[in-house]
Amino acid sequence: xxxxxxxxxxxxxxxxxxxxxxxxxxxxxxxxxxxxxxxxxxxxxxxxxxxxxxxxxxxxxxxxxxxxxxxxxxxxxxxxxxxxxxxxxxxxxxxxxxxxxxxxxxxxxxxxxxxxxxxxxxxxxxxxxxxxxxxxxxxxxxxxxxxxxxxxxxxxxxxxxxxxxxxxxxxxxxxxxxx
Amino acid sequence: xxxxxxxxxxxxxxxxxxxxxxxxxxxxxxxxxxxxxxxxxxxxxxxxxxxxxxxxxxxxxxxxxxxxxxxxxxxxxxxxxxxxxxxxxxxxxxxxxxxxxxxxxxxxxxxxxxxxxxxxxxxxxxxxxxxxxxxxxxxxxxxxxxxxxxxxxxxxxxxxxxxxxxxxxxxxxxxxxxxxxxxxxxxxxxxxxxxxxxxxxxxxxxxxxxxxxxxxxxxxxxxxxxxxxxxxxxxxxxxxxxxxxxxxxxxxxxxxxxxxxxxxxxxxxxxxxxxxxxxxxxxxxxxxxxxxxxxxxxxxxxxxxxxxxxxxxxxxxxxxxxxxxxxxxxxxxxxxxxxxxxxxxxxxxxxxxxxxxxxxxxxxxxxxxxxxxxxxxxxxxxxxxxxxxxxxxxxxxxxxxxxxxxxxxxxxxxxxxxxxxxxxxxxxxxxxxxxxxxxxxxxxxxxxxxxxxxxxxxxxxxxxxxxxxxxxxxxxxxxxxxxxxxxxxxxxxxxxxxxxxxxxxxxxxxxxxxxxxxxxxxxxxxxxxxxxxxxxxxxxxxxxxxxxxxxxxxxxxxxxxxxxxxxx
Amino acid sequence: xxxxxxxxxxxxxxxxxxxxxxxxxxxxxxxxxxxxxxxxxxxxxxxxxxxxxxxxxxxxxxxxxxxxxxxxxxxxxxxxxxxxxxxxxxxxxxxxxxxxxxxxxxxxxxxxxxxxxxxxxxxxxxxxxxxxxxxxxxxxxxxx
Lengths: 179, 568, 144
Hints:
The structure holds 3 protein chains of 3 kinds.
Chain A: E1 4-7, H1 17-27, E2 46-49, E3 54-57, H2 66-70, E4 76-79, E5 82-85, H3 95-99, E6 106-109, E7 122-125, H4 138-142, E8 148-151, H5 153-175
Antiparallel strand pairs in A: 1-8, 2-3, 4-5, 6-7
Chain B: E1 13-17, H1 21-24, H2 26-37, E2 41-45, H3 51-54, E3 58-60, H4 67-80, H5 86-92, E4 93-94, H6 96-103, H7 108-115, H8 119-131, E5 135-139, H9 141-144, H10 150-162, E6 172-175, H11 182-187, E7 194-195, E8 199-200, H12 204-214, H13 229-234, E9 245-249, H14 253-256, H15 260-269, E10 272-277, E11 289-292, E12 301-304, E13 309-313, H16 326-336, H17 346-354, H18 365-371, E14 374-375, E15 404-405, E16 424-429, H19 445-450, E17 456-460, H20 461-467, E18 474-478, E19 483-491, E20 498-502, E21 530-536, H21 540-557
Parallel strand pairs in B: 1-2, 1-5, 2-3, 4-15, 5-6, 9-10, 10-11, 16-20, 17-19
Antiparallel strand pairs in B: 7-8, 12-13, 13-14, 16-21, 17-20, 18-19, 18-21
Chain C: E1 3-9, E2 18-24, E3 29-35, H1 47-51, E4 70-71, E5 81-82, H2 85-103, E6 108-111, H3 119-133, E7 138-139
Parallel strand pairs in C: 6-7
Antiparallel strand pairs in C: 1-2, 2-3, 4-5
C-alpha cells in the first residue's frame, strides 16, 4: 500500500516551515549559497487556512491515482510506496491537475530549462514523499509542532485495529447498557 | 514573563490576550498546542481568528481597541459571582476595595456594546478563567501597542491577583517579548529611567552605587524615550533639550517607527546621525556616519530570552571585512572622548555588570555554560543557585512590603477612530518568516522566497467582495499620514471593517500610515489602531511594474546591483 | 574539510531556541543547522530557526552588508565615503564632544539594540550614554 503524509489541524500553527523544508529537501543544501532567483521555489505541499482550519494539503498517494490514469504520456507512476511524476516526460498538459480531487498538483516552471521559443519548461509538481531522501519526508521532520505524520501501511493497520475494537466495545455497550 | 516557557503546556487554563504566538513565536505557540493536547482550557481574546483562537474553548473576538472594557468586565464577573480568592487577596495584595469601585460599572452588559462580545460569553470566559487552576495569562503586542496599554497590563495582573494565580508554576502573567534580546536590552538598562537590573535612575542610593562604580557623577533626570525623538528633534524649543545627535545602534527607525514621514524629517534635520549596524538599511540613508559591526554568528555574548533566561550565543564563523564587535566600537568611541573603556572580551563586561545588579549577580558565564540557561533572578554565584523558573513564589512580590497592588482604570477608546474619509481600521501584525525590519531574514534565500514585497493586507472576505478585490490584487491603502501599495488577502479570519498589515516591507510599508500617538506611561505607539481606507488600482499592469521599479530603486539605494530585477 | 559543531542561541524571536550548527572552519561557512535540545525549544525550530542563517554570507539580495566604516564628508545627502576605523572613531568622538559642549549632554540620544548585539554591548551603550555623555537619553525598540 502507498504511504502518505497526514496533517493534523489541531496541531498545525500555519507557520509553513514544512513548505521551506520541502524545497530544501528537493533542491539540495546548495540553495543556501546560490542566487535565490536561480532556482524555483516550488513547495510540493500547500498551506490552507480557512476561518476554522490551518493545515498543509498534499498528495494522498492514492491506490488508484486519477492523475496517473489521465496522464497521456505515462509520466506518473508508482515508485516504492509513492506516486511520482517524471518531470522529464511531463508535457505540462494539466490533465492530472484537473483530475486530482485534492488540488494537490500544481504547474511550476523548471529553473534553467528552456524550450524552443526560449521560455521556461513548465511541469506538474506534487509531493513525492521525498522519495530517494534517506531521512524521509522533510515536512514531517521539520514541523515544530509534530502536526505532520507519515502514515504507513503498518500504522494504518494498527489504527484500523484500534477503531474496530472501539466499534466492538460500542456495539457491546449498546446491547448491554447496564454492564 | 513571570513563568517559564516550558510551564505553559501544564497550565489548567490559558487566557491568551492580544498574543498571536503562531506568527510571533512559533516555538511558544508549540507549548500552547501541547497544552491543548493535555487538556488545557484556552480562552483567546483577539479580534482575529488566530491559530490559538482556532483551538480555543472560548474565542472572545473583541472589537479592536476595547481591551480594558473586556478585562474590567471579566474582573466584574469574578467579583460579583464570588469567584475571587479572598484569602490570597487579603494576605498578598493591597488596594482591592478601590479597584472594585472602578470595575463596579463594568458589568458584561455594559461591556457588550463596547467590545461587541455578548455578555454571556464574557461571563463564561471569566468563570472558566477563575475556576480552572492553575490559570495563566499570556499577552503580546495586541495589549501593548495601544495608547491604553499599561492600564490593560495592570488589568490583566488584577485578574491574576483576584484569583490567586501567582506564586506557583504554570500561572501568573507573561508578556511574550518579541525580539530575541528585547528582554536583555531592558535588563541591561537601555532604558531612559533605569540602570541595568531595573534600578531606578532617580533613586539616590542606586545612583551613588553606579557613580562609585563608573567613577563619574550621573544625571538624576529621566531620559528621552525613543518614541519622543522625532518631536524632540523637530519641535523642541529649548536648545539644551533638542536632540542634536542621534547614535542609532542596531535599529532602523526609518522603517520600524510609526509615522515614517515624520521620522524621515527628524533624521534629516538632526545635526549628527550615527548608525551602527550590520546591513545597510533605510536609516542608513540619513546617517552621517556608518559603523559596520559583526553580526550574530560572528560574535559572542549573552542574550536574555522572553522568560528571563540568560543564554550564551557563540561565534560560528570569522567576520569578513573591516568589522568590529558592537561592544568594541562603543568602547573605542568612549575612550576617544576621554572616558576610557578597556575590556578584553565580553566576559569582562559581564562580570562588571552582574556585580552591579543584585538580580543577575549569580549568573556567571561559568554557570550559564554549565546549565545552558539561567533564569534571573539569580543572586548567588554558588552553583546551587540555578536561577528562578517562576516569579513571586508563595505570593511574595518585589515591593517594599511584598504585597501586590490592585490598580483599576477606566477604559478609553483609541485616539484615531474610523471616520467618513477613513472608514476602516489598520492594525500592524507580524509575518512569521520575517524578523523585525528584515535586513536579516530578507537576505535569507528561502525566507525571501516564501514571502516578499509588497506584502499583504488582510481584509474580510465580504469587504473585499463589496469593493471588488480579489486575492493577490494590488491595492492602495491610505491614512491621513501617508499611503502604500500592497496585495489584498481576503480572509474570514478578520472582522469586517478591520485591516491588518505586517511592518517589514519597504513598498507595503504600513508605518507610512500608522500614528505616533503614545501610551502615556510606556510611550508605546498605537500601532494596533488607526483609521484608513483601501482603494482599488484600476491599472494592475502598471501597478505590478510600479512595485517592481520601486523595489529595484530601493535595493539600488541599499547598494544592491539590481540588473536582474526583483521578484515582486 | 574541518567540520566543527557549535551550539548557539537563535537570533530571532524571544523564545531563545538552541540550534546546533555544523561549520566548515576552512571554508569559513555554515554547512547545516539542526535543532538542539534547549530548555525552551526541546529539539524543535520554526522556519526562521531552521533557515534563517544564510544572510551571513552576504547574498546581495535585499541590502548590502556593511564592510567598512563610512562618513558623509560633504554633509547630509553627500555620498558615503569609506574611511579607516581610526578616522571614523575620532570623527564620531569629535562631533559628539562638540555637540555636548555646545548644547549639553541631554541634546544627545543613543539607542540600545534588542537584536543581535547582545547584553554586553547594551550594557556598554547605556554606560557610554550615562557615564561618558552624561545623559539618561538611552532607549531601544521595546516600545516599537
